Amino acid sequence: MQTIIEPFRIKMTEALPITRRSDREKNLAAAGHNVFLLDADAVTIDLLTDSGTGAMSDRQWAAMLEGDESYAGSRSWRRFEKTVREITNFRHIFPTHQGRAAERILAATRLRTGDIVPNNGHFDTTRANIEYVGARAINLPSPESQDLYSETRFKGNMDVAALERLLAREGRRRIPFCMITVTNNTGGGQPVSLDNMRRVKRVLDKHGVPLIIDACRFAENAFFIKEHEAGYSETSLLDIAREMFSLADGATMSAKKDGLANIGGFLACNDDSWAVDFRNLLILTEGFPTYGGLAGRDLEAIAVGLMEALEADYQRYRHATVEYVAAALVARGAPIVRPAGGHAIFLDAAAFCPHLTASDFPGVGLVNALFVEGGVRAVELGSVMFGTRAPDGAEIAAPHELVRLAFPRRVYTQSHFDYVIEVIDQVFRARASIPAYRIVEQAPFLRHFTARFMPL
Fold it and tell me: Is the pTM of this model over 0.70?
């Protein structure tokens, strides 16, 4: 059949707020023109993030009723550990309350001031945790990723030649580990090929540098490999995931993405001495190592969700949904990152708003216009989130000015996305009216979460 249906049926509904334009304008102004500061009740279609916003399955809800809330060594922990090990085969596994907790433990125990961490694309919390301890986060995206509109596959790859140059220049002493993010959220949700991961691993092994996978969307990445990398069309998503993790020395994971859960994550590694450091800091800040800040019911939900994310029918539907929206927007002339990513549509805000410069924060303007037009909440991935500062304090623009519309898992139907397409089309037609913005209040780290803006 031509129509790819949702591989589930709905057993419970939640009312959506249907709002008026005047109320949306008032709410946005009260939030300092930062959609992060809006009450969720003011949002009709919430595409701010796919992190922890998905709908759990009946199997997950049933598993939660079996949650063992024992403080240490619970049955839920054993099920969680068994599932994570079945997928990753890592020796040491530590649950955490979410992915950024795993990143913080990794950075705090392995990095010192002046260290360097290369990545195909550090996302916001990864970069912030690295910089918080005085290290530097360096992105080495593939050259193909610079062309936002090419249909080249695996644009999320790391630039292996650039990695070799960096290692030759800085050496093992300055680079305690390298990361690779699957899929590459910073670069438009683009996947990483197994071939690229193998080549990265060979270069790192020559220099004795460990590889850490940021595995938030490992199952979506596995689906891309199955669909588009030669030799994997008949391989199960589970086996592809196992091959991906076999190339790594450790991983951080937000289970709020491909764990299909509303909270949770893990940190994993093979090195015994690393594990001692991880365990000691986890006990200090997260909890006992067999619960890591999570309730037993959460461990149960993640154990089920990780396997559900590797079901081919689910991934086929999810990717088809993103591609459906992407094709409709391309047909209307809206500039988006191509090919479609695994979890989101990424609008090119710079091309969307050619009358604005990077210092005008076109992504903020576009995000606000989408909310005012139709109550759709998206997020800026441009110079507010990824911009840096020169030594004199001047703003340095991000490489791209993007706006991400992240699709919560198993939440919205085709009619919801048809509505989103209409909203984007309306904003695109009136794009010349999108104003510039200035920051009037910001935090030193992760400023996009709490900054306040003023339209000019």
Answer: yes
